[in-house]
Amino acid sequence: MTDMPRVTEITDFDSPELDLFARTSEVQLLRYFEPEPGIFLAESPNVISRALDAGYEPISLVIEKGELQGEKARTIMGRCGDIPAYTAKLDVLTQLTGFILTSGMLCAMRRRNLPALDEVCGGAGRIAVLENVTNPTNVGAIFRSAAALGMDAILLTRGCSDPLYRRAIRVSMGTVFQIPWTFFDKKTSWPEDGMNFLTEIAFKTVAMALKDNSISVDDPRLKAEEKLAIILGSEGDGLAEETMARCDYTVRIPMSHGVDSLNVAAASAVAFWEMGRK
To answer: Which of 54, 155, 191, 269 is deepest in the core (most CB within 10 A)?
Structure first.
């Protein structure tokens, strides 16, 4: 793009130009263009770049004044074209929750329609399935591990936190834009329809859970499987009993020092490392 954003300086945190970034909830952003997909906020030049690389459309920018002439900011603005851009001094922008951690830049971007399950899973050999993981920090961390450690795609039940919530994007370091993912749609019940779908496309299913019949995460049978779906449960309750009963394997991570479990994000990294390798 040759056009650059129009930069307007903001001196008051209560300025309406900051409403989208400071006074609009995640749910309001999600529904901003309803029935069309809404808006998400990407933070930092690296994360914004990954979203742009993935084809997401920028709407507007907020840039800390001290960063405005920097190479990263200029590069991002050059890629965003003629959209509104706002700048302010750090003492104004620090009133935006978490802004001080964003390397001086926020970008509002349009969401896209979610891909179909078949599209996400086509050609995949290892996928992660998140069942009702409600903490956006954990969702973001799982995405980062999945992208780094051999997962080809991620499926989420409708009880999960949205991967495009601001905190999830930030914790993922933008990997939510690098690995294919989607939610099970309203017509696909979980676990019944969802598990049937995985079986129909030849995935063996793995429940990450501490049960009497659990096998170790490094069991050679797992690596021998051509296609594996690794299913991770909510932070407090773990996987539903019905989900575990339907899985082909129940898998545990061996522990020491009397520790009985790991946070779901930490457990995902161990599982992906072991089972993502063939």
So the answer is: 155
Residues for the chain: how many in total?
Answer: 278
**Does residue 254 have a cis bond before it (omega within 30 degrees)?**
no
Mind listing the pLDDT tens digit for each residue in 163-173?
Answer: 999 999 999 99
Amino acid occupying residue 267: A
One-letter amino acid for residue 43 of the chain: E
Q: Is the pLDDT of residue 203 over 90?
A: yes
Q: What is the pLDDT of residue 1?
A: 43
The reply to whether the predicted model has a pTM over 0.85 is: yes
Q: What is the DSSP string of 103-132?
A: TTEEEEEE--PPPPHHHHHTT-SEEEEESS
Question: What is the bridge-based pairing of β-strands 39-43 and 84-88?
Answer: unpaired
Q: Do 166 and 43 contact (CB within 8 A), yes or no?
A: yes
d(CA 164, CA 177): 9
- Neighbour order of strands in the sheet with 249-252: 181-183, 153-156, 126-130, 228-232, 204-208, 249-252, 215-216
Q: Which two tokens stand for residue 90?
A: 């750090």
